[in-house]
Amino acid sequence: MLIIHDDDVLGHAPRGEVHRGEWIDSMESPARVHGILTELRRWDHADFQAPLADAAYQELGQIHCGQYLEFLRTAFERWREERNDGDAIPYVWPTRNNLNDHSETIQAVLGRYASDTATPIMEGTWRAAWASAKVAISAAESLNDGTRTAFGLTRPPGHHASRDVYGGYCFLNNAALATQRLLNKGFQRVGILDLDYHHGNGTQQIFWERGDVFFASLHADPDFEFPYYSGHSNETGANDGAGMNLNFPLPQGTPADTFLDCLQRAIDAMMAVDVRAIVVSLGLDTFAGDPLGTFSLSTEDFAAFGKPLATAGLPTLFLLEGGYATEELGRNLINVLQSFVCQMK
Ligand code: OKP
Ligand code: ZN
Prior knowledge:
By secondary structure, the chain is an alpha/beta fold.
């Protein structure tokens, strides 16, 4: 199985984040990637490749707004120029309907683009986010008749980032960028299956009014979990995208059988609208031992993901989203990929 990886993703290593009113070490750390790489290097099916060279990435401008990209590229430099010592974290949020606000100080600009305080920007952030996006798009590029599946080791994750908002550890929406590449390559409709513990609010928002992408997400009910304001079952899309968005908000303690039942229903719904490829936003924070999750999937349960996915018979791209139990992350990931590869044919 093709594994796309780039060491630049390791350059984003924030010092900490605000969590329940306290300052803690960042959950979303390079250690996650080290844990995964250790296991992938031991796996006989892994065929490592680097992303494509920088030149050919038109999807960035199709998914994200130009001013937002310019902001991400320069934010840390500007933050430093204004004599701030730590990582860039906003603490003012200029409301967007304030007509008199044209403030260009980085303090104001950060608050204009950020959705939370858990997503610091530091020296290596842009390079890492860009590398992660390249990994996703390159993995999508590799899918064709001969290559049914690939895994992109995307980090920082992407599913909370929308056209011009960052947050939830996400800056560029890797799954959306990969999906756009598949569409650009001629796949007529693509399904995104978001299995992360948290609702993929950024992805939902990006494709909300589009008929060429079906978005399905299984996640903790926003009535008790981050992002708190998105992911309810009555959010079904609008205009061309009406009926093309399907949310499964789930309760605390959700066990594997419930999760797998919803997974099957999500796949059935995408098959019913004739998607030609599937992008899996593979968060592994549904694991019972995850420090941010409350679901109760075991390491063995992840080996049950492959069968329903492979049975769909479509080109399937796996991209990493969350998952914070660093020790078990690699094992859980390989159980998903291995079970898919074994069932495929
Ligand atoms: C990202 B992904 C605040 C508590 C939670 C945000 C969780 C982001 C999850 N420190 N913060 O979907 O796994
Ligand atoms: Zn998550």
